[in-house]
Write a structure and sequence with these properties.
mainly beta, 8-stranded mixed beta sheet, 86 strands, about 45% strand, globular, Beta-prop_RSE1/DDB1/CPSF1_2nd, Damage-specific DNA binding protein, WD40/YVTN_repeat-like_dom_sf, nucleic acid binding, WD40_repeat_dom_sf
C-alpha cells in the first residue's frame, strides 16, 4: 500500500539554542535547533528579528557554536550539527549579494569510530571548547556522547581540512569565509589530525550528569574536560580529564609503551597518539543532587537544586582534591524540588541560572574585601524571578538579550538587565492524544497538547476561526444580505427588511426600521454608501433607488424586464447592473448613465474590475468577458470560455496583480489574472464541489468565500490557491460591515440555523489552531458524538481530574467559559483511556444504535505511586451523560458502576460482533470482559498474554467475524482473533520485528487490512494482512494454518516520534464523505481514508494512501526534485528517509571493502541494507517544493522524472505493487534499448495507464504538474 507523507504543521519545540557571530560581521545571532529546522534570529535594540529558516534532511540532536578566529580577531562562528542518525556536520552562514542568508557546508560525515547505531535517547551530553596549537592558534573542539560510558572527541579544524581536500573549490570557499592566511595556514594544514577519537570514562563514573570544557591554558595541544558524575554509593564528584590533540611524532615516541601490547589500553592510547586521560577527582563530595557544570574565566561552578559551589582556577591547581577552597551559596528556597537545567556566564562575573520550573537566578562573583583571606571569592544572589516556561537551553547575546529554548512550551527572549521578556517562538508542546470530531462532511482534529501551565486542548483543522460577537435567530427564508454604512438590508422572496446599527456608550445594537426611505416592497440586489455625499444607493429588482436625507428617489426604473444582477463599488464610484441582455453603467457621483451595452446572450453574473472596467458572464456560451469604458463607449478587452456557465465572480489583488475567480454551475472554479485575460490565455479550472459555486469576496482578507452547505474559503497564494473552511454549518449569504465604529466586520447568514452571526475572522490561513488553555497537562481527550461533548483528563499534582466540555465551547475558545463540570478521581489515580460502549449491546458499529439509556462512557484509571515502576492496581468506571433540561444547562456525567482490575490498565476497545464484550489492555495482556445485565457489572472471561505493555487495542469489523489489533510498547503489533462461540482469544499474526508503538490506526482497502503506526525510532510503518486469509471463527484448523507474521508493506523515516494517530483529515472535508468529494476530485488515486498524527515535538502530519499509479508518478517526481534540492549541511534525503533502528552499521562497520572477494558477505551486506530502505512512501513536502523552483529547473526536474518513470515502467515484469516491494526506486534503473521497448511496452501504454488514473501524461508539462501539485497541497 503506497502512501504520501505530508507535514501539516512543523515542529515548534526548540531542542537547543546557541549564539555567535555566524555572519562574521560583528552581528550577534542566535541559532535555534527545531529538530529538522535551523532558525536564525538577529538581535535588535528592542527584541529579536527572524532572519531565515533552513529545513534539513535530518533530525538534529546537538547544536554547538564554534569560534574560528585568527590572532587579529577576524573570523566567524560556525555551527556544529549532530543528528540522531549519528551524522556530524559543520556549516557556516554567509549573506549573499541580494541579502539572503545561505548555508555553506564545511564538513559532513559519520562518526567513523562508532560502529553501530544507538537509541536516540540513549545519552544526551554535548559541549564545546577550545585548545591552543603549537603555532598559538586557538581551534575549537567538541565532545559528545552517543552511548553510556564513553564520549567522542571531534577536531573541527581537521574535519574542515579533510573535507575541503575532496573538492577543488574548497580553498575559494574558505578564503571567502575567513582570511586567506587563516584558511591556508590554519584550516588547510590540519589534514593529518584524527577527526574522531573515542574516550572511555572511568568505570566508577556510573551516572554522568554534565560535562564541560575548561578554558585553554599555556599547555599546547591540550584541553581540560570536567565531568560531573555520581558513583556507586550515590556520592557526587567532579573529575578532570586531559585531552591531547594532534601530538607530533616526537611526542608520540616519547610516550611510555604498554607492557602488554596485545591488550588495548582503552583509557589512554588511541590512534595517531591522541590521548584522553583522567587526571584526578577535581572536586569530591559536592551536593548529592548536583546536575550542572558551568565555567567562566574565574573558575568552575557546580550547580544543584539547593547549592552552588565554586572553585577558582587560581587556587585550584595548588590545592589537593580534598582540601580545595570551595565557595558555596544556597539558592532561595523553592516550594517544590526543582533542578537547574541551563546556565550561562554574563559580563561582570555574573551567572544566569534557569531552573526547570521557569525560575531564574542571577548570581554575582565578588572578592572578599575584609577578613583574613583577601583572595577568597564570594557568591551573591542578585535577582530572582520567574518566567512561564520550561527551559532546556540558554543562549546569551552581546546586546543584553538572551534566548530561553524550550521543548515543552514557548521559546522566550529575555533582557537579563531589566527583566523584560516576550515570546520568540510559539510552541504548542508535545501531542499526547488525538480525537476526531465528525460533523457531516467536515472533520476536526482535536489534540491534547502542552505541559503544565501551557497545557490544554487544541482544535486543528482547515477552517478559519470566526469570533462570534452577536447572533440574531429566527430569520426564515432570507435570500440575500447587504450592509453599507450603518444600514443592513435582508432580502426575502418578494420583499426586504431594513435594520440600522445604533451606538450607545457601552454597546452597539441593531434595530429594525419600520419606516425608512429604502424600498422594502422589492427584492434588494445591491446596497452601497457614498460617504462624501452621505448617500445610499439601493438597487432593487425594478430600479436604482437613491436615499439621502431621509428620502428615497428612483433615478432609474426597469419595470419591463426588471434588474437581475448588480454590482456597486463606492470607492470606484461605479454601478453596473443588467436587465435581461442590456448592461448599464452608472456614475455614482452624478447618478447619470455613463454607457450601456446590449449583448447577444443574457447576463449570468457581473462584477466591477476597475473604475473603467467590468467583467460579465454570459448564459449559453459559457463566456466570461472583460469590458472597458472609454468616452462613453464600451469595448471588449478580453474573453475566456469556461466549461460551464458562470454564476458568480470576484476580483482579488495578489502580489499587486488583479486575479479573477469565477464560480461555475458545474461545481468548478476558474482562476485567471486580468493581465492573462487580456492576452487571451485560458483559465485554470478546479472542481471543488458538486453544486453551483456561489462566491463572496472577503475583501479585507484577500480571500473568497464559497457559499453553500459546506462553506469553503479560497486563499490566494503564489502557487495558485489553498482551500480551507470556516466555522459554520452552512453560509447562505454574507456581508461586510464598513463602519469603523462597529467592532464586528462580517455578517454571516446560516439557513440551517435561521440566524445571522456578527463577528470577525480572527485568523485566515490554511491550517488553523484554536487553543483552549486549561493551565494543566491534558493526557486524554475523547469526542463523544452521541452527546456532542468532549471528555478530557487533566493531570493534577495528586490526582487526575475529568472534565466535560461541550462541542461549541472548543470552537469558541475566546469566549469566557463558565465553570466546567468535573469529576475528581481518587488520590494517586491517573486516567489512561476513554471509550464509548453500549452496555450489553451488539457493538456492530463503533457508535451503536441502541437506546440512550444503554450508552455509556468507560473511564480507565490506574493507581500510580512513585516507588512503583508499573501500577499494581487499576479500575474502570462507566458513566452515562445526563443532558440538562434547559439549553443553558451543561450535561453532566453520572457514575453507573466500576470494576477493580489487578495490574496496569492501559487501553480498551469494544469487541466487534460479540454482544456485550470489551477488551482491556492490562500490562502485556488482553483481557476479555462481558456485561452481566442481571448484576449490572462487567465480568472477566478470557485473558491472553501478547507482549510487555499493551498501548492500544483497535477493533476490526469484518462480516460476522471478530478481530482486534493490539499495539505493544516493545513487541510492535498483533492480529488477534476472538472465537465468539468458545470465548477464546488467539494470535492470528504478529509483527516479527521488535518495535515500540505508542499509537496506531487500522483501515481496510479491498480485502487487505492496513495497520499504520509510528515507532520510538521516529519511523512510520504499515503492516498488511489479507482479510481473505483470516480464519473463520468456526474453523480452528484454519486458524493454525494461517497464523504467521504481518508483512511490512511500507516503511519510512518521519524524523519525529509519533505519539498519537487517528483516521482523520485536516482538509476542509474528509476523503470518505460523499456530499463534497473535494479530496478525491482534487487528487486522483486516493484509495483510502487519511491518517493524521501528532508528535512529541508538536508537529502534525497526514498520511494519505494512494494508488500504485499515483505513487509511481509522485515517487519519480520526488527523486527528481531531490537531485536538484541542495543537501543543506550535507544531509541527503535518501539517507534521511531510511528507517532507523538500533544496531545498524555505522562508521567503519559500513565499509564492505572485502565484498569483492567474498560473494557470501556481499549478499549479506546487500540484504541487510535493503531492510532499512524507505519503501512505498514518498515525501509530500519535498514533492510540493517543485512549485517553488524556476521554470528552467522545473523543466530539468520533469525530464528526470520522465526518464525515471520510463525506466521503472519498462523494467517491470510484474504488477506495480510487487515491483515497488522488491525494488529500490531511489536508485536509477538501467534504460532498456529502443528495440526492446517497442517489443514489450510503449509510451502509449504508459500514458493510457496514467490517463485512466487521472494523472498527467508523458511528456510531462509544467502546467499539468503544477496544477496536480497545487491540488495536492489542498488535502492536508
Amino acid at each position: 500500500m503506497p502512501f504520501v507523507a505530508s507535514t501539516s504543521k512543523h515542529p515548534t519545540a526548540v531542542l537547543g539554542a546557541v549564539s555567535g557571530f555566524f555572519l562574521g560581521n560583528g552581528e550577534s545571532l542566535v541559532l535555534l535547533n527545531r529538530l529538522n529546522v535551523v532558525s536564525l534570529f538577529s538581535e535588535t535594540a528592542e527584541a529579536l528579528e527572524h532572519l531565515r529558516d533552513f529545513t534539513l534532511f535530518a533530525s538534529l540532536k546537538y547544536v554547538e557554536a564554534l569560534p574560528l578566529f585568527d590572532s587579529k580577531g577576524s573570523g566567524r562562528h560556525v555551527a556544529f550539527l549532530f543528528s540522531v542518525k549519528q551524522e556530524v556536520s559543520i556549516v557556516a552562514f554567509e549573506r549573499s549579494v541580494d541579502g539572503t542568508i545561505e548555508m555553506i557546508t564545511l564538513f559532513h560525515g559519520d562518526v567513523d569510530t562508532c560502529f553501530y547505531q544507538e537509541r536516540p535517547n540513549e545519552a544526551s551530553l554535548c559541549c564545546s571548547g577550545s585548545y591552543q596549537t603549537s603555532r598559538n592558534d586557538v581551534l575549537p573542539l567538541v565532545t559528545f556522547s552517543i552511548h553510556r560510558g564513553s564520549v567522542f572527541l571531534f577536531d573541527v579544524a581537521a574535519a574542515i581540512a579533510v573535507y575541503g581536500g575532496k573538492y577543488r573549490n574548497a580553498s575559494l570557499v574558505l578564503e571567502k569565509l575567513f582570511s586567506p592566511e587563516y584558511a591556508q595556514q590554519v584550516l588547510r594544514k590540519q589534514k593529518k589530525q584524527t577527526l574522531f577519537v573515542q574516550g572511555h570514562l572511568n568505570a566508577s563514573e556510573l551516572d554522568v550528569r554534565s560535562m564541560i570544557f575548561g578554558p585553554y591554558d599555556s599547555e599546547k595541544n591540550a584541553a581540560a574536560l570536567y565531568v560531573l558524575y555520581a558513583d556507586s554509593s550515590s556520592k557526587t564528584h567532579v573529575s578532570e580529564y586531559s585531552i591531547y590533540i594532534g601530538m607530533n611524532e616526537e611526542q608520540h615516541r616519547g610516550q611510555k609503551k604498554n607492557i602488554w601490547p596485545w591488550l588495548p589500553n582503552t583509557l589512554d592510547v588511541f590512534s595517531r597518539g591522541d590521548v584522553f586521560r583522567r587526571k584526578a577527582v577535581f572536586l569530591a563530595n559536592v551536593e548529592t543532587n548536583a546536575c550542572l557544570l558551568q565555567v567562566n574565566s574565574e573558575g568552575l561552578f557546580v550547580l544543584g537544586p539547593q547549592l552552588m559551589s565554586f572553585v577558582s582556577w587560581k587556587i585550584a591547581s595548588n590545592q589537593s582534591t580534598m582540601s580545595k577552597n570551595v565557595t558555596t551559596l544556597a539558592f532561595p528556597s523553592f516550594s517544590a524540588y526543582v533542578e537547574p537545567v541551563c546556565s550561562a556566564s554574563l559580563p561582570n562575573r555574573e551567572l544566569l541560572i534557569f531552573f526547570w520550573d521557569g525560575t531564574y537566578v542571577k548570581t554575582a562573583l565578588q572578592e572578599e574585601s575584609e577578613g583574613l583571606n583577601s583572595n577568597k571569592m564570594l557568591l551573591v544572589n542578585l535577582a530572582i524571578s520567574s518566567l512561564r516556561t520550561i527551559p532546556d537551553s540558554l543562549a546569551i547575546l552581546g546586546g543584553g538579550h538572551c534566548v530561553i529554548g524550550s521543548r515543552m512550551t514557548d521559546t522566550l527572549w529575555l533582557k537579563w538587565c531589566t527583566g523584560e521578556s516576550g515570546v520568540l517562538l510559539e510552541n504548542c508542546g508535545p501531542v499526547f492524544d488525538l480525537t476526531i470530531a465528525v460533523d457531516g462532511p467536515r472533520m476536526g482534529v482535536i489534540a491534547s497538547t502542552g505541559v503544565g501551565m501551557g497545557g490544554g486542548v487544541s482544535l486543528q483543522r482547515s477552517a478559519v476561526n470566526f469570533r462570534h460577537d452577536a447572533v440574531i435567530d429566527n430569520l426564515l427564508n432570507v435570500t440575500r444580505l447587504f450592509a453599507a454604512g450603518d444600514i443592513v438590508i435582508l432580502s426575502f422572496p418578494g420583499y426586504s427588511r431594513v435594520y440600522q446599527f445604533q451606538n450607545t456608550p457601552n454597546m452597539t445594537t441593531i434595530k429594525e426600521l419600520s419606516e425608512s426611505p429604502f424600498d422594502k416592497s422589492k427584492v434588494t440586489l445591491s446596497l452601497v454608501y457614498v460617504s462624501e455625499r452621505n448617500t445610499f444607493v439601493q438597487v432593487t429588482s425594478v430600479g436604482v433607488n437613491v436615499v439621502k436625507g431621509g428620502k428615497g428617489v428612483y433615478i432609474i426604473c426597469k419595470n419591463e424586464f426588471g434588474i437581475q444582477h448588480a454590482s456597486a463599488n463606492a470607492n470606484l464610484r461605479l454601478l453596473v447592473f443588467s436587465s435581461s441582455r442590456l448592461v448599464s453603467v452608472v456614475d455614482l457621483n452624478t447618478h447619470h448613465t455613463r454607457a450601456s451595452l446590449e449583448l447577444e446572450n443574457e447576463v449570468s453574473c457581473l462584477v466591477i474590475s476597475s473604475s473603467q472596467g467590468f467583467v460579465i458572464g454570459e448564459w449559453s456560451s459559457g463566456a466570461v468577458c472583460l469590458y472597458e469604458i472609454q468616452d462613453g463607449e464600451i469595448f471588449l478587452k478580453g474573453r475566456i470560455f469556461c466549461s460551464a456557465t458562470s454564476c458568480s465572480m470576484c476580483i482579488l489583488s495578489h502580489l499587486h496583480t488583479p486575479r479573477l475567480v469565477v464560480g461555475l454551475l458545474n461545481g468548478y472554479i476558474a482562476d485567471i489574472s486580468l493581465e492573462a485575460m487580456l492576452m487571451g490565455s485560458a483559465a485554470r479550472e478546479t472542481l471543488i464541489r458538486m453544486q453551483p459555486v456561489q462566491l463572496f469576496n472577503l475583501e479585507s482578507h484577500n480571500a473568497v468565500l464559497c457559499l453553500g452547505e459546506v462553506p469553503l474559503i479560497i486563499i490566494l497564494c503564489d502557487t495558485g490557491f489553498q482551500l480551507t473552511g470556516i466555522d459554520f454549518n452552512d453560509v447562505a449569504a454574507c456581508a461586510i460591515i464598513e463602519g469603523s465604529h462597529i467592532s464586528s466586520k462580517y455578517i454571516f447568514l446560516s439557513q440551517s440555523e435561521n440566524s445571522l452571526a456578527f463577528g470577525n475572522i480572527v485568523d485566515l490561513k490554511k491550517l488553523n489552531s484554536c487553543f483552549l488553555g486549561l493551565k494543566a497537562t491534558v493526557t486524554r481527550v475523547k469526542y463523544i458524538a452521541w452527546w456532542n461533548v468532549f471528555v478530557i483528563s487533566v493531570r493534577r499534582n495528586e490526582k487526575d481530574q475529568v472534565l466535560l466540555l461541550m462541542g461549541h465551547e472548543l470552537a469558541n475558545s475566546w469566549v469566557p467559559q463558565n465553570e466546567l463540570f468535573s469529576i475528581e478521581l481518587l488520590e494517586n489515580e491517573r486516567c489512561v483511556f476513554f471509550e464509548t460502549v453500549v452496555l450489553g449491546g451488539s457493538n456492530e458499529s463503533p457508535n451503536g444504535n441502541e437506546a440512550d439509556k444503554d450508552k455509556a462512557i468507560l473511564l480507565g484509571t490506574t493507581f500510580a505511586f512513585p516507588d512503583e515502576q508499573l501500577p499494581r492496581s487499576s479500575r474502570f468506571i462507566w458513566y452515562c451523560v445526563e443532558q440538562g433540561k434547559l439549553i443553558s444547562e451543561r450535561p453532566q456525567l453520572r457514575q453507573i458502576g466500576s470494576k477493580d482490575v489487578e495490574g496496569a490498565l492501559q487501553c480498551c476497545c469494544i469487541v466487534p460482533n460479540y454482544v456485550g464484550r470489551i477488551a482491556l489492555g492490562i500490562n502485556g495482556c488482553i483481557a476479555l470482559y462481558s456485561w452481566n445485565a442481571a448484576d449490572s457489572v462487567f465480568v472477566a472471561e478470557e485473558t491472553i498474554c501478547i507482549g510487555t505493555i499493551v498501548t492500544r487495542v483497535l477493533p476490526i469489523f469484518q462480516g460476522d467475524a471478530s478481530y482486534m489489533v493490539a499495539f505493544d510498547a516493545r513487541h510492535s503489533c498483533f492480529f488477534i482473533q476472538v472465537d465468539t462461540i468458545q470465548g477464546s482469544l488467539e494470535i492470528v499474526a504478529r509483527d516479527s520485528e521488535p518495535r515500540g508503538v505508542m499509537d496506531g490506526a487500522v483501515f481496510q482497502l479491498g480485502n487487505i487490512y492496513n495497520i499504520c503506526f509510528g515507532d520510538d525510532y521516529y519511523n512510520f510503518f504499515c503492516l498488511s494482512r489479507g482479510a481473505s486469509t483470516l480464519p473463520s471463527v468456526s474453523n480452528a484448523t484454519s486458524a493454525t494454518v494461517s497464523s504467521g507474521k504481518l508483512e511490512t508493506s511500507a516503511q519510512y523515516h518521519l524524523g519525529d516520534m509519533v505519539t498519537a494517530m487517528q483516521l482523520g483529515s485536516f482538509a476542509p472535508c474528509s476523503v470518505t464523505n460523499i456530499a463534497v468529494p473535494i479530496p478525491t476530485t482534487l487528487i486522483p488515486g486516493i484509495c483510502g481514508p487519511q491518517v493524521v498524527f501528532g508528535t512529541s515535538h508538536g508537529a502534525f502530519g497526514t498520511i494519505t494512501p494512494v494508488s500504485n499509479e499515483t505513487y509511481l508518478f509522485l515517487k519519480a517526481l520526488e527523486v527528481a526534485v531531490s537531485s536538484v534540492v541542495p543537501a543543506l549541511g550535507g544531509f541527503e534525503h535518501v539517507t534521511y528517509r531510511e528507517v532507523l533502528r538500533a544496531g545498524q552499521e555505522r562508521g567503519y562497520s559500513r565499509n564492505a571493502s572485502f565484498e569483492n572477494v567474498n560473494v557470501v558477505s556481499s549478499g549479506v551486506f546487500d540484504k541487510r541494507r535493503k531492510r532499512y530502505l524507505s519503501r512505498c512512501v514518498c515525501s509530500g513536502d519535498l514533492i510540493e517544493s517543485f512549485l517553488t523552483f524556476s521554470q528552467t529547473i522545473q523543466q530539468r526536474i520533469l525530464r528526470e522524472a520522465e526518464s525515471r518513470i520510463k525506466s521503472c515502467y519498462f523494467s517491470m515484469n510484474s504488477t506495480l505493487g510487487e515491483f515497488f516491494e522488491h525494488n529500490d526506486l531511489d536508485n536509477s534503473f538501467a534504460e532498456r534499448s529502443d528495440a526492446y521497448l517497442d517489443e514489450c511496452k510503449t509510451i502509449g501504454d504508459l500514458n493510457a495507464l496514467f490517463s485512466e488514473s487521472g494523472l498527467p501524461t508523458l511528456p510531462l508539462t509544467r502546467e499539468a504538474v503544477n496544477e496536480f501539485l497545487q491540488n495536492m497541497q489542498r488535502i492536508h
